[in-house]
Amino acid sequence: MNVKLYRYLIIILLIISSVAKSQNREFIIGSLIGFYGIENKGEIKDMYSQSNGKVWGTGGISAGLNVKHGFSKNSYGALEIRYIRKGSIYEFISSTGMGASESIHLNYFEIPLSFGLTIKLKKKHLLFEAGLAYARMFSSKMVISSLNPWDYSSKLTGFKRNDISYVAIIKYPVIRNEKLLLGCRFSYSLLTIHSLYKLYNMDYGVELYYLIITKQ
User: Fold this and answer.
1) What is the pTM of this model?
2) What is the rounded CA–CA span in Å between residue 95 and residue 44?
3) Distance (Å, rounded) from C-alpha 132 to C-alpha 20?
């Protein structure tokens, strides 16, 4: 992560802190960590057209901060600042008959902005959020297998730096004071993330949210 990115993070956090102090309605700040299945959809098989194999989902992680501001009793807005890794894994059988794989790792700084609803249950409640996320890729890596005669690392230069995706999340409080929430998240790119192939990021998985600051 470069120096400019750190500066952007500091500026955004300062803005959030100042806004939080000035609000009269509910304002909540929490930390988050996520574990996902990640996949590149679209023409990913075309990118690997020179060899026969399968493209699968692999594992990804995310961490950051979540800010929630109440609009009414049952609605709110949510802003996040997070690091998230996306990509995919390619599995193939080499000429020696051995199984092998190659991975694409795309690292993003992402800012999702969502509208949320509180859905009342008998004892607790569900939180449903949906919105858009802007992501800026700051590094990319392809783990190349020595068993593959084709070197696909040059394809990385075609990945675009910017990604816009839609996001949907369902959260549920898992402890009595409702400071710890378990969430299920899904996101999918709206625009292609590659200049030559129509590729899209997709991620799906679970997240944990811990509420740090609550202002009423």
Assistant:
1) 0.82
2) 22
3) 22
